[in-house]
Design a protein that fits this description.
The chain has about 400 residues and is of the alpha/beta class. It folds into 2 domains: about 10-265, Aspartate Aminotransferase, domain 2, CATH 3.40.640.10; about 265-400, Aspartate Aminotransferase, domain 1 (Alpha-Beta Complex). It has helices at about 10-20, 45-50, 65-80, 95-105, 120-130, 145-150, 175-185, 195-200, 235-245, 255-265, 265-285, 305-310, 325-335, 365-370, 385-400, and strands spanning about 85-90, 110-115, 135-140, 155-165, 190, 210-215, 230, 290-295, 315-320, 340, 350-355, 375-380. The strands form 2 sheets. Strands 1-7-6-5-4-2-3 form a 7-stranded mixed β-sheet, sandwiched between helices. A 5-stranded mixed β-sheet has the order 8-9-12-11-10, covered by helices on one side. The termini are far apart. About 45% of the residues are buried. The model is unreliable at about 1-5 (pLDDT under 50). The structure holds pyridoxal-5'-phosphate. Pyridoxal-5'-phosphate binds near residues 194, 214 and 226.
Length: about 400
């Protein structure tokens, strides 16, 4: 592709801006380019009119779309959609995907239903910002389907939001049952499936309307980006895209590229993380100093049968309680050599956290216990390290704490 030269009669400032720039798109590249463009010029006003009338599809302005972002969206929709009929909207974070969806779908005076162990910031958004906008909500216990149906207010309830599996106890929701209840009452459903990923579970297959992921976790997979996505039927996603154009939260093209790159190895990573999660859950359950393990792949998990029916694998997060108090649990965590102590999950590096010192730090031990959170709870997110090394590391820390 020829490179256009600045005509010699232009001044140095014009040349500095235009010389050497390709005005044609030329991409024989094997990788999707990172397109860093705020705006997309038209050849002439006729081309602009053609675009406005919908006769050509092309980019217009950075807040309304970007080729790198579209590549990520197409990839994520393909992973999530059972029949290829769904589309995706990429967002700058998982929270942005959730808040954009809710703000676009629920009017003032509307009502939504959330579950009691949903992602903390989602619950906070519903309780604070959404309440200020005049949207009411009900919180129902996760897995209580009678309470869920009873909470629906005819004509007022717009959205049921749940997660599966949940954090940190990895409860699994009966997705076909939630979808059926919602359909009966003409309410839309949204599942935050970050912990499952489309490798392990595809909620749309079970009749769920919208699926969100924090791509910051498994999909990006390298602890180097923040992004989120919402996937569903094209008419719904198109409405969300319009809302995003107004709200203004857009994924950076660099992050979109990192996501495209990360997703290429997603299935390989999930295989290892599923295998390590299972092996580590079994190891911990057999260890005398571990008092309880929460992992949906274990027969001891309350939702094990549901997990078998709905999930292909059970993921890399294992939560467990050890035989000790807050301090002893901290000693155990400090003795681990491979995992980093950090929030987040799903990346190539194993991460460990003590929820009582992280997401639930503001509460006292008694307050934490009231919400079912014990001080001796540990959450491990297995990375892609060798399973045997992770187990050996856990073993040495359990022997010493
Ligand atoms: C991390 C996470 C989010 C938020 O995602 P961000 O990318 O951090 O904004 C939402 N839901 C779940 C279940 C998460 O784990």
């Amino acid at each position: 592709m020829p490179v256009e030269q600045s005509p010699p009669d232009h001044g140095p400032s014009t040349a500095a801006v235009h010389a050497g720039e390709q005005r044609q798109r030329a991409h024989d590249s094997i990788t999707t380019p990172i397109v860093l463009a705020a705006t997309y010029p038209f050849d002439d006003t006729a081309a602009l009119v053609e675009f406005q009338e919908g006769r050509v599809q092309r980019e217009e302005y950075g807040r309304y779309g970007n080729p790198t972002i579209r590549a990520a969206e197409a990839k994520l929709a393909a992973l999530e959609s059972p029949n290829g009929q769904d589309t995706a909207l990429l967002c700058p974070s998982g929270m942005s995907a959730i808040t954009t969806t809710i703000l676009a779908m629920v009017p003032s005076g509307g009502h939504i239903i959330i579950t009691d162990d949903g992602y903390r910031r989602t619950r906070q958004f519903v309780r604070t910002i959404l309440a200020r906008l005049g949207v009411e909500h009900s919180v129902v216990p996760t897995g209580d389907y009678a309470a869920l149906e009873a909470a629906i207010r005819p004509g007022q309830t717009r959205l049921i939001i749940s997660e599966s599996p949940t954090n940190p106890y990895l409860l699994v929701i009966d997705l076909p049952r939630v979808a059926e209840i919602a359909r009966k009452h003409r309410v839309k459903t949204m599942i935050d499936a970050t912990f499952a990923t489309p490798y392990n579970q595809r909620p749309i297959e079970f009749g769920i309307d919208l699926v969100t992921h924090s791509c910051t976790k498994y999909l990006g997979g390298h602890n180097d980006l923040l992004a989120g996505v919402v996937i569903g039927k094209p008419d719904l996603i198109s409405a969300l895209r319009d809302a995003q154009g107004i709200l203004g939260g857009i994924c950076d093209p660099h992050s979109a590229y990192l996501l495209v790159r990360g997703v290429k190895t997603f299935a390989l990573r999930m295989e290892r993380q599923n295998a390590s999660g299972m092996a580590i859950a079994q190891f911990l359950e057999s260890h005398p100093r571990v008092t309880r393990v929460y992992y949906p792949g274990l027969p001891s998990h309350p939702n094990h049968d549901l997990a078998i029916a709905q999930m292909h694998g059970f993921g890399g997060v294992v939560s467990f309680e050890i035989d000790g108090d807050l301090g002893a649990t901290s000693n155990f965590v400090d003795r681990l050599r491979i995992p980093y102590i950090a929030p987040s999950l799903g990346g190539v590096e194993s991460l460990v956290e003590q929820p009582s010192l992280m997401s639930f730090y503001e509460l006292s031990s008694e307050e934490r216990l009231a919400v079912g959170m014990r001080d001796n709870l540990v959450r491990l997110s297995c990375g892609i390290e060798d399973t045997a090394d992770l187990i050996a590391d856990l073993a040495q820390a359990l022997d010493l704490f």
